[in-house]
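sorry to bug you again but im stuck and you know this stuff better than me. theres a chain ive been looking at and ive put its sequence and its fold in token form underneath. id like you to explain what the token line says about the fold, in plain words if possible. anything you notice is useful, everything is just below.
___
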Amino acid sequence: MELILQGLIGALQRIVTLDPDVMEAASASLVITGSATALSVLVGVPLGVLVGLGRFRGRNLALSLVNTGMGFPPVVIGLFVVVFVWRSGPLGQLDAYCTRGAMVAAQFLLAFPTVVGLTAIAMQSLDPMLRLQVLSLGATRLQVGWILVREAQLPILTAAMAGFGAVISEVGASVMTGCNIKGDTRILTTAILLETNMGTFDVAFALSFVLLALIFAINAVTTWAQQRRRPQ
């Protein structure tokens, strides 16, 4: 109990004084995870709309692959990315191993299936008559897709939030692809792992509190946006 109390007091001191190590890890988490989530939304939402509304050969297989991807272990994703960016790998010339770029790629691969899958579900949950009504008014396929996305904006926002949640707290892929380099690729989760292994629980607690606060803040903003846009 005394160890926990000392850790909590030390954590509070580090947060209040804006400890550089804590702030660096928090900043890196925002940049890397934010970039990966943004990319997953930009690519995943259009594909989710296509899979959700489209009728094409192999659609069920595509949905199965997406659903499987939603359950991929982070360490497996990390392994694949490392193999590709390894010096002798297919993308070894990019010299991306132990870089933020490799971490963004790994986190993108983790968030992407979630965004695609939940967006497809959002599209499928819309009233089928809505699409027919819009088409009967002379809208193009692109316009139909845009209108349906606007109708499903709340569940799509939830898909984006779920994609963010899938990567902000993961550790395995980030350690494997970023190598946990201080001041560069060390993010909140990998820093917590390191500090815990070293027995510096005050730093680990401080990092944990910042991570929890960050997750709460992002979800609070998203929830506010959802409720604000909710149909009356």
Observations:
- The mean pLDDT is 86.
- The domain at 2-229 is CATH 1.10.3720.10 (MetI-like fold).
- The radius of gyration is 21 Å.
